[in-house]
Structures are given as C-alpha cells and as structure tokens.
Write a structure and sequence with these properties.
The chain has one helix and six strands, in the order αββββββ. The protein is mainly beta. A six-stranded antiparallel β-sheet has the order 4-3-2-1-5-6, with no helix packed on it. It is globular, with a radius of gyration of 16 Å. The N and C termini lie far apart (about 40 Å).
Length: about 120
C-alpha cells in the first residue's frame, strides 16, 4: 500500500452523508468563524459535480442569490461541514452539469425523481 494512502486512511474522519450526485438539490450546513465566534450557515443549491476520490473528494454546489449565480466547492471530508441534507433528487443524464450555468428561467429547471 502506498504510504500516502495509508496515512490518509488512518487520519480520515468518516462522516455519514446521504447519497447525492449531480442534479440533486442539497443544503450544506457549514461552520463559519467570525473573530472568536462560530456559527452555522446554510448553502442550498444544485450539485453540479462530484470530483476526486477518497480524502480529496469535492463537490460543487450552485445557487442563485440576488439574481446572480453563486458556486461553492466543498471538500467532502471538511471538518467545517456540519451536515448535508438532501432536499430533492434530480434526474439528469450527465455527471457534470455545467450547462446549467448558461440557462435561465424555466430552462434551468431539473426534473425531479421521486424517492
């Protein structure tokens, strides 16, 4: 076994998140430090992609805030992520839905998969 993989597996903190993929709408509860205070902020949006594997895995979430698209990349194993909540399952054909960036209005809707 590679030495780096061994160290990553030993020190990795396992968190249980629901299964989600591109097209799903999720809410990420993450900690923000402001000075010496700490609070939890929610980021609700559509998952554009999941990338990487193991400890270096990340996912990108996009939301519309004030008419402007905002994207944020979260590491899956970040200590700042409190929880990930699955709101809607989306039905898309691709693993990375960057085409969503160019769409507005009704065209930007994703079909919902009932679960």
């Amino acid at each position: 076994m590679d030495l780096m993989k061994f160290v990553e597996s030993e020190f990795a903190v396992k968190k249980e998140f629901p299964e989600f993929k591109a097209g799903d709408t999720i809410t990420v509860h993450y900690k923000i430090k402001e000075g010496n205070k700490e609070r939890i902020q929610n980021f609700r949006g559509v998952v554009l992609q999941r990338k990487g594997a193991g400890v270096t895995e990340t996912f990108t979430v996009r939301k519309i805030s004030g008419g402007i698209g905002v994207e944020r990349i979260f590491p899956v194993h970040s200590p700042f992520i409190e929880e990930v909540e699955l709101n809607k399952k989306g039905r898309v054909r691709r693993a990375r839905i960057f085409y969503l960036r160019d769409l507005t209005g009704k065209k930007a809707r994703i079909k919902e998969k009932r679960f």
